[in-house]
TrEMBL record:
Cell compartments where the protein resides: Cytoplasm
Record InterPro entries: Peptidase_C15, Peptidase_C15-like, Peptidase_C15-like_sf, PGP-I_bact-type, PGPEP1_Cys_AS, PGPEP1_Glu_AS
Main enzyme class: hydrolase
Catalytic reaction list: Release of an N-terminal pyroglutamyl group from a polypeptide, the second amino acid generally not being Pro
Its job: Removes 5-oxoproline from various penultimate amino acid residues except L-proline.
Active site, renumbered: 80, 143
Protein name: Pyroglutamyl-peptidase I
EC identifiers of the protein: 3.4.19.3
Primary subcellular site in the record, as a coarse category: cytoplasm
Sequence similarity: Belongs to the peptidase C15 family.
Amino acid sequence: MVRTILVTAFDAFGGEDINPSLEIARRLPHNIGDTHIITSEIPTEFALAAKVARQNIDKHMPDAVVCLGQAGGRHAITPERVAINLIDAPIADNAGALLVDAPINPAGPTAYFATLPVKSMVQAIRAHNIPAELSTTAGTFVCNFLMYSVLDYLASSDLDILAGFIHVPYIPEQHQQPAVPLDDLVAGITAALGALIADEPDEPTGDSLLGNLH
Ligand code: PCA
């Protein structure tokens, strides 16, 4: 049962005044059915992002963590399927750090799959006529870093908490293209959270192709 969801969102970065993820988080309902939605702001800084997220997880002990971030250039709300063990920042973060070709956790696995029902989330968003696509890359900047760090923390602490990441497009107020109205993004993320509450996780469960070759 998903009774409490922690939703994180990033502050503005890369010369923007607005981060749509934070605008969404501010407008989410406090409850969806019987499920409590808690929101938290995360600095777009490698040195702080994972730490602040961990503090919020430890404080609230939610059943699921859904991290939100901006992906300028995308046309749709995009639940992320995978986080990779790599930082290769295209720009400096909000503290001026520019990290290139660095592992997130040198002792960690190459990647983690989201443990959220990502396909159900995409369907739930589309059911509201809001564009949604499954994504297989969260990039190599602070968003991928946060998704990997959260999944790595949960895996290494044996915490039974679902987690993953959803990227959102620009909103019209940012004067960038493509853009999706903020109201649609709020409705889309609310629908995705509804799918999480209603659904079971759908990590890849198909038969292994390699296994079938023997
Ligand atoms: N998007 C950036 C970092 C913060 C955000 O909202 C990213 O995609 O990595």
